[in-house]
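User: Run a structure prediction on this.
Assistant: Running it now.
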Amino acid sequence: MILLIQNIEDYNNDFRVSLQAFYGGERIVIPEIFDRKPELAGEVDKVFAADVTDDGIAIRMYEVTNGLDELESPVCSAHVDVAGNCHDKAAVRNPLKLAIYEMLSDYTGRKLPWGSLTGIRPTKIAVACMEDGLSEDEIVAHYQEVYGTSRDKAELAVAVAGREKKIIESVAEEDEYCLYIGIPFCPTRCLYCSFTSYPIAVYRDKVDTYLDALEREMKFVADAYRNKRLISVYVGGGTPSSISAEQMDRLCSMIRDNFDMDCVREFTIEAGRPDSTTFDKLEVMKRYGVSRISINPQTMNDETLKTIGRSHTSEQTVKAMEYARKAGFYNINMDLIVGLPGEDTAAVERTLDQIKALAPESLTVHTLAIKRAANLNIQMDRYRDTLRTDIDSQLAAVTNAAKDLGLFPYYLYRQKNMTGNLENVGYSKDGLECLYNILIMEERTDIVGLGAGSSSKRVVRPGHDGVTEGTRIDRIENCKSVDDYIARTDEMIERKKAGFIWD
């Protein structure tokens, strides 16, 4: 447990995320907690102290050996000189996080591939630099100097940003929007999952009622956004294909009947789990103009599938791909996860050999993230010894397989508590990049979320509301529970009315 001591809280989040990058999974507490739980003091084994003054910020790390009352000299320390206002977060944040990173890197002997970067959208930096006219070499140097990023990751960010920028330039950002529709049902809950998902076997009788509520929210949004063009529809989950073919038909007809689809450039449905992806459901999707689907095995090793709670086999993945091709789909994504319990580089390479034979048009590769609410984290004592350390080599195997398939990296994001402090990368063939994935990362246009567990993002530009000076993102969250969403659909609509500034 780490005790965080700070004289002001301006940089509380920066301290926390920097510590979590090196000490993922450790609890971080502040002194005030001892007033309620004094027994926790005995569990503290590290102290991170920060003093913000007019001259700069002093940071120190202590190892606790004889209790909190007898701290010895710090095991490492650093000072950030600040020219100007120490409370100016925009000016101070990057030098501060870099100082923390370098201090802890020297102390632990660990180099993190992304350096001091802890946000989920590292490519936004590269896109902004490109728009400012910097060359690729200058941007790579910027990542290394300002954030301590490795050259490999800086070059990856630049490569992805180049593809993102081409797509972004094709979007009329203020006049267009994207739609996300959440179908929060799954055949089973995966070991690593922390998403909003409910077992279809238990909730099967509520699906139609859920679609009723969803349609009410659809009607409101369609009217509210009648003066903007819808360019991307993304149906995710959960596992959308866990509902019946008849319910899939109803869902697709609801989308078609409520929204003007004439300008839609991409209609994606996560067909998802191979055990719920049937030919009749795929036929329905194709009939309604779905242009992109995702079939997500995560791994092609059957023993691992059992371990992570996926009730399908690798053979079912092969069959699902056959169904998809037969239905006429030629823009198919497949999701994989590296770092799964029990899997080493050889296991990942076996999966990739099978994926290459199936030849998807895009491949999204996730590095295992151990989320707080996931069963993997809750049962960590059971799985700790099965988690491998060769993640870099696993990712390298994926990169090589993507090249063999003629796929290029086009979007990238990171999550908290990712194995190896690495990243998730989407690869695709030229011209088949997922528009929605790029826009949700770069936050250039409104994305409206419908359904339980969805989130909406409204891009508020300078002068848009008479107040905003810089661009900001307003977020509106829907409740996560299916039952709550059904009962409180009117509230979800009211949240959008209150939180968004409608044109």
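The longest helix spans residues 89-108.
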